[in-house]
Description:
There is one protein chain. α7 links the parallel β11 (209-214) and β12. α3 (128-141) crosses α4. Strands 3, 4, 5, 6, 7, 14 and 15 form a seven-stranded mixed sheet that branches. The protein has a six-stranded parallel sheet with strand order 10-9-8-11-12-13, with helices on both faces. Strands 1-2 form a two-stranded antiparallel ribbon. Helix content is 29%, strand content 27%. The protein is an alpha/beta fold.
Amino acid sequence: MxxxxxxxxxxxxxxxxxxxxxxxxxxxxxxxxxxxxxxxxGVNPVDWxxxxxxxxxxxxxxxxxxxxxxxxxxxxxxxxxxxxxxxVFGMPRFPLAAGAYAQYVTSPxxxxxxxxxxxxxxxxxxxxxxxxxxxxxxxxxxxxQPGQRVLVHAAAGGVGHLAVQIAKAHGAYVLGTxxxxxxxxxxxLGVDEPIDYTAVDFEQVARDIDVVLDTVGGEYEExxxxxxxxGGILVGILNASxxxxxxxxxxxxxxxxxxLLVEPxxxxxxxxAELVAGRRLHPLVAATFPLAEAARAHQLGxxxxxxxxxxxxxx
Length: 315
């Protein structure tokens, strides 16, 4: 008999109201995969973009979500890294469908890492996509160095608040944009110079920047390029499909530009876990919702005013 589980499904594209709890078949791990019993699932902007547009997912029905933290339930043939009962976290299969808003998810074993010791599942589920994005932008792409000036846009957001901490862990001087009400939080995260983007033009304040992490896009890209010192680099996480145009605009100003599409990376997850264990990185959870209330989580996330991450709890 096919085993069943609960998952969030949508039968049409649209607003948060299309998300509903349904009983579906439980997946089975294929060779080199593991089955994970999900304890918590992180919510990311890409989730509601897929909910509205479908994109590579094709037509509904489908289940959105990538960020997971949970316990290995079953091993597929060939898995040597884990045993049943291991606590793991990760972002399986991105940008392909993973179906993380569910009680169970399968993942290639080498796209997961052991959950950071001392961190609960809710906070671990807040890490993968945002921390991988920040690390791949700042460390892998920009190769941030001690003493460099790093500008992080939306510095209190899901990616931004982790990017600030990762940049500080690598010895950078960090400037961060956010509304004034969030400047206290920014300083707690390690921001050296908060910038209220509603009160001043950030490009008039941020000067001689070595690295910009652009989590906003649009007009921010052109404005941010002008803050860079000669040879500096802007990494945009929203414009991977237009990376060539970004590079061309940057080159015209004597700087560099790159567009990033985050990808699963076990080694980076392990590096992130080390920062967590060393108390140099802490994910901020703005709100939690039970799995059945995924629509409410999307409503809150799309409002764009939260600090840190939203997480679904799965029982």
